Amino acid sequence: MPENTYSPSGDDAGDDLTGVPNNDSARPDVTTSTDDDDNVRDMADIPSIEVVTRAIIMLMSASAEKLGLAPGASEDDADLDEARKLITALAGLVDAAKPDLGVHAAPIRDGLKQLQLAFRDASAYPDEPGEGPGEKYTGPVRDRRR
To answer: Which residues contact 45 (CB under 8 A, 6 or more apart)?
Structure first.
């Protein structure tokens, strides 16, 4: 099974699912309800559009990584199957959040389009316009420079 890249580095094999190493000195007291209440209040203070845009940025970054677009990445680092899934999820989220994105909608749509075009360029057998990742939500994506 692949290693979870979201876990802190240096995790021991016996870690629990919280991502905190299995030693009592580093483990937070999970029985304290005050900590849970503070976490809920913190999330309640974050505007929903900020949560959505953070998710969009995370999906964009992960898509770029899977396309091998990260600095220092090689063609061997690309995983187009994973990139397709991430770009499709990104397109669905962008489409659903379109009315709420406000002034950020245009740059987000442009970033999504660039990822879709990069996917097409990286594919040995490019999808037809309208068949690429996320295009069922965005419509066909074409490079206007061509």
So the answer is: none
